[in-house]
Amino acid sequence: MLLFSIERNGQQHGPYDLNALKTYLYDGKILAQDKTIGPNGEISTVREVLRKNGMGTAVKNNGNIIKQIKSFGASLLFPKNSFSFATFKNDQKLLLISIIGLAPAFLIRFTDASVFTFYAIALYFSVLWGLFFYSVFNTSQVRIKNSIIIFFLVQAIIFISIDVLRLTEFNPFYQLTEDHQPFFSRLIGYIFGVGAFEETIKFLPVFLITRLSKEPLKPQTVVFYGLISGIGFGVFEGVQYQILVNSKLDYNTSFFLNIARLTSLPFLHAIWSGISSYFLAFAFLYPTNRIALWIIAIAIPAILHGLYDTFTWSIPGLFVSYIGVALLMIYLKNAKDFQKKIVQ
């Protein structure tokens, strides 16, 4: 007689003969997918064992559909007693899922498809990016208050620098970014114009928070603040592009760029400013080397930024994007080695 043991969730039951397996399967006491261990230690499933021995794998129905539904109980299907403000307030997982899943619908409804809608949706994606970065780069020194300050401060700096003071109009390198310019002229314009200028803007709020800190900040802490600064910059820039530029393009292009301005581009801005903040952190930890570290903090992300803007969504542009992400992770991984080099 062939005997088979059943293994489920790390526990073994049996052994059972083939008729017992068929009966238990029919009664719903074991499952067709349950793992079986044969007399010689061979591994299979209940379904495979029964079929191999010419036996059926039927499972009975517990009455008709109405009877089955009634057996569940109305209170489980419609738990009206659980629908209360107290439940919603105290269940953090329910609250988080509801906010993440339903926020866009509520934002669109209550902002009435206006310029506030663009900004509100951008804020929504910013929160998602912020939560993601917080889960990956959070340290005991990270303060939510500082993160919020950086997020909105960088947007204020953008507005004042570009919309009020119009500093980009005085930067000769910006003129080299026009489409009719030769490739290398545009590359120089994007690196020394767009890249250097925008990375400096993102650098400033993180510099301020790090400067005013009452304790030396770890590189990973400063990197997190840099990521937040990049998100804030990317969101503000994205909303402006959606309103002033993307709305004038054809539907397909506009849709693609709107999605990019809410997702990948804020992420890239965050990565570049994260790299900048990495070197900024060491500039404060080792102030005798601060000038070189400040220059590096702007130069490396400006080069990555300029290369990406030159190549945009082409294969080389996507490769440059990947290089930025890889560099940031490698820098953080090698932070101790870099620290040893500085102190030599």
Question: Which helices and strands appear, and what pairs or packs with what?
Answer:
Blueprint: E1 4-8, E2 11-16, H1 18-26, E3 35-37, E4 43-45, H2 46-52, H3 65-72, H4 74-77, H5 85-90, H6 92-111, H7 115-137, H8 144-164, H9 183-212, H10 219-244, H11 251-262, H12 264-285, H13 290-311, H14 315-333, H15 335-343
Antiparallel strand pairs: 1-2, 1-3, 3-4
Helix pairs in contact: 6-7, 7-10, 8-9, 8-10, 9-10, 9-12, 9-13, 10-11, 10-12, 12-13, 12-14, 13-14
Number of helices: 15
| SSE pattern, N- to C-terminal | EEHEEHHHHHHHHHHHHHH
Structural class: mainly alpha
Gross morphology: elongated
Major sheet: arrangement of strands: 2-1-3-4
Mean pLDDT: 89
Distance between the termini: 77 Å
Number of strand elements: 4
Describe the biggest sheet? 4 strands, antiparallel
Uncertain segments = none
Write up what this structure looks like:
The chain is mainly α. Helices cover 69% and strands 5% of the residues. It is built from 15 helices and four strands. The protein has helices spanning 18-26, 46-52, 65-72, 74-77, 85-90, 92-111, 115-137, 144-164, 183-212, 219-244, 251-262, 264-285, 290-311, 315-333, 335-343, and strands spanning 4-8, 11-16, 35-37, 43-45. It has a four-stranded antiparallel beta sheet with strand order 2-1-3-4. Helix 7 packs antiparallel against helix 10 and helix 8 (144-164) packs across helix 10. The longest helix has 30 residues, at 183-212. The model has no long low-confidence stretch (mean pLDDT 89).
